[in-house]
């Protein structure tokens, strides 16, 4: 993605607000070993529009702060179904400022 497009996306994402439910993430990796040893594509890292997923040395990590609650990660992990995803508790999660 060109850097000017990336900057525009980040600017729009910044308009949203997030109420983090500390200690109760609504998305979890079921088995991190599956991501590290069996999943070679690691689509979650590439497809998450909010950039919550990352990979370093083959180890996938997840930070749910800033999650758009779109469900892309649970859909894209179609081979191993290694994502435990649920909506955040009421009052937590993304708060869309314009919409």
In words, what does this structure look like?
The protein has 99 residues and is an alpha+beta fold. The protein has a single domain, classed as 2-Layer Sandwich (Alpha-Beta Plaits). Helices cover 28% and strands 20% of the residues. It contains four helices and six strands; from the N terminus they run H-E-E-H-H-E-E-H-E-E. Strands 1-6 form a two-stranded antiparallel sheet. Strand 3 (53-56) and strand 4 (59-62) form a beta hairpin. The longest helix is centred in the first third of the chain and has 12 residues, at 3-14. The mean pLDDT is 87.
Summary tags:
99 residues, alpha+beta, two-stranded antiparallel ribbon
The gist of it:
With 99 residues, this protein is α+β, with helices and mostly antiparallel strands.
Strand arrangement within the widest β-sheet reads: 1-6
Q: What's the β-strand tally? A: 6
- Calculate Rg over CA atoms: 14 Å
Our count of domains comes out at 1
Strand content: 15-25%
The second-level CATH architecture is: 2-Layer Sandwich
- Major beta sheet, specifics? 2 strands, antiparallel
Task: Map the helices and strands.
Layout: H1 3-14, E1 17-19, E2 27-29, H2 32-37, H3 43-47, E3 53-56, E4 59-62, H4 72-76, E5 83-85, E6 93-95
Antiparallel strand pairs: 1-6, 2-5, 3-4
């Amino acid at each position: 993605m060109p850097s000017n497009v990336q900057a525009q996306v980040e600017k729009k994402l910044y308009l949203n607000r997030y109420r983090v439910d500390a200690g109760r993430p609504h998305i979890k990796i079921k088995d991190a070993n599956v991501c590290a040893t069996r999943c070679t594509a690691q689509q979650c890292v590439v497809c998450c529009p909010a950039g919550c997923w990352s990979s370093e040395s083959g180890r996938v990590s997840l930070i749910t702060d800033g999650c758009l609650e779109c469900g892309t990660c649970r859909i894209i992990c179609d081979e191993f179904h290694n994502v435990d995803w649920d909506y955040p508790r009421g009052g937590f999660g993304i708060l869309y400022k314009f919409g």
